[in-house]
Amino acid sequence: SQTIHQWPATLVQPVGSPLSLECTVEGTSNPNLYWYRQAAGRGLQLLFYSVGIGQISSEVPQNLSASRPQDRQFILSSKKLLLSDSGFYLCAWRPDRGETNYGYTFGSGTRLTVV
Amino acid sequence: DAKTTQPPSMDCAEGRAANLPCNHSTISGNEYVYWYRQIHSQGPQYIIHGLKNNETNEMASLIITEDRKSSTLILPHATLRDTAVYYCIVRVAFGYSTLTFGKGTMLLVSP
Question: Is A63:A87 a contact under the CB 8 Å cutoff?
Fold first, then answer.
């Protein structure tokens, strides 16, 4: 069966420090991968998605970047965190079947607090 | 993708059916209706989806009107663990369109 792993679960980082959040998927190949962010009291915002190794699409210009160095690995990074980067970060995947008639599966999330 | 409208909050007594409405009057013929829910501090969870026929699975039932302009998610016997934000999302069936979440409906199930 397929599983998605996301870590760490919580993170407290000072302003100006770098960030690296990792997400991996097991039990499938060539998944579509997604990074979402949910700021406190707000809805889920799509940040990045990837349909293949090295391919990244950005939905919102910001202080963050994403990379997909391996088929089932998706990394969210920042060189210098801002206070506004605080939030709940979620990784998600779905099978690459061409059609979108498959649900997304989300990880358990990383709660990032920038202080 | 078509826009959806949901009530911001609803209450339901434990053991009763919870009926969550969603309006999607601008839905096009190739767009599916998806429902997800997000329990506090967890990632969203897929519930069910449908095109035009009613659908049922172990979690819920989805009733789509004949003109497809609205739908209702039914939790037949709500429990306290069903307290969550429920999102109704409309998106195309093919291609690489992404999942866009609105504000959803906060369902509170009370004893």
Answer: no
